[in-house]
## 1
Amino acid sequence: MSTFEDYVATFDNESGYLNWAAFGPLSPSVRAEVFADADLLGSGRPSSLSLVRERVGQAQELVGELLGAEAADVTLQPSSTQGLMHAFYGLSGTVIASAAEFPSVSLTLDRAAAASNRALTPRWVTPADGRMTPDAVAGALDDEVTALVVSHVDFRTGFRADLAALRELIGPDRLLIVDAVQSFGVVDEDYTAADIVVGHGYKWLRAGRGSAFAWFAPRARERIVPVLSGIAGTRALSIDELQVPTASAQAFTVSQPDTLAAGRLAIGVRDVRDAGVAHIEGRIAEHVDTILEIADRHAIAVSSPREHASRAGIVALSPEEPARLAAALANAGVVVTARGSAVRVAAHAGTDDATLQQLDDALGAFGNETFINA
Ligand SMILES: Cc1ncc(COP(=O)(O)O)c(C=O)c1O
């Protein structure tokens, strides 16, 4: 069996799970790591404690490897939102963002601007279809703009932004800040087009909460002040002197990382690296094709992109009666996210045929029910 097929075989969650864009049930290897590391931490033996502490460096190395970045420039964070806080609170100038971003971007940017004494100004863009294309950004670009922040894959529309094209548009002197929560580990991307990338382990990496990261390229650190820097952001902990933030990316951290979370992140990233991110992306694309075909066959409108290059693992269904569809799926044991007018369906590489059949059957029954009630 190939390593990719080994990886696919590790998906042991219950059938019907199509909510990977919200939460990824923990993989067997991550679960095993938690137990092993917890046992080591329970011993109190200094060698065991330092063994678990090594997970921090391992996680930095592995995230760096997938990003094409230096491990030392990768910080571990409790959440991707906290990674974005470090970026926004130290930023000045005008920052372009979509008003429809996940609140980790929009709300955090708004809060940072409010605290900045007018040094930071968000410039909200509202593309009609919610897609942050170069055209949508170009209209908002002027000399005041110092940065663009964008989700690589939008949590709502599933649209995958073209990072290389956005970089080309904004040029080398503005920062490109990327929220890769919905793509890291499952989209084979050249992240070095960005200056800052945040992500986390609790969805597509199947590594649980608390396992986030933020990468600060050297050119980002030249332009962002480590305002929220804490005791882990200094060169060495000193209890009698107040230290300035270190010159490294670690300045963008607050306190020592959770070593159990670092271990989970390291294993989650190692697993996708070993399976091959391109293979994972390819299998997810096949599942998305199947989901689109199922939706079309049952005449359920799809609002997410259909072209491979503009999508990843999220399919947004926009039925006429979203609440009723959400209820029908829940009753059929199909787990999705229902929000407003859309029902978000997200398959992973290990999603099995039975799950897609469950979706098909539930949408079929939903259609018949409409017919009977009409
Ligand atoms: C695009 C995006 N960014 C950020 C987050 C939140 O990340 P965290 O919980 O690590 O702050 C989510 C959660 O769904 C998301 O979809």
## 2
Amino acid sequence: MIELDNLDVKILAYLQSNSRESFQEIAKCCLTSIPTVKSRVDRMLELGVIRKFTIDIDNNKLGITEAILIVNAKPGAVSRITQELRGLEEVKELYVTSDSDTAIVSRVAGDMRRILAIQERINLTDVNNIRILSVKNAFTKDSTIPLASSSITLTCSYCDKKMTGDAVKKKFDDKDYFFCCTTCQGEFEKKYTKLFSKV
Ligand SMILES: [Zn+2]
């Protein structure tokens, strides 16, 4: 496992909430220099900790339909169908259940006509049943890593104590801060509020 220090984790936390956050802003908030932030980000990119900077697009606003595709197939056909589905642009996520009743469950997005046509675009040999359910409401949790509950060593933003796991996470000004206990969180909150009420 790759070791990250507190500054790396802080930088990651900023970039997770906004991948377009400027190095200047991050450097200011982390009390460090822009070249330091840049070299840390470059290192995490090199190590593959950061795979890419992405954007979150609202499919609804673009009239793109989301649907769930469920394919029940004979066990012997699962790997072939999985391969075929993975090659389709509309397939966004794919899960194979490990039940005796093997199913391939996939989240698909695109034009509804194209989604329905998936049934004609894959080889249906040994497929028992195929269903396409259009999504009415989606509740997606963000895909940010749970920094507060990971095994990464963090330093309490208030008392500087090192801690692993079970950190208390709190957002201030839309930025994540980590604390060793709720007391430290409370103290930090007091200090923080005072600091910013002066401005
Ligand atoms: Zn603390």
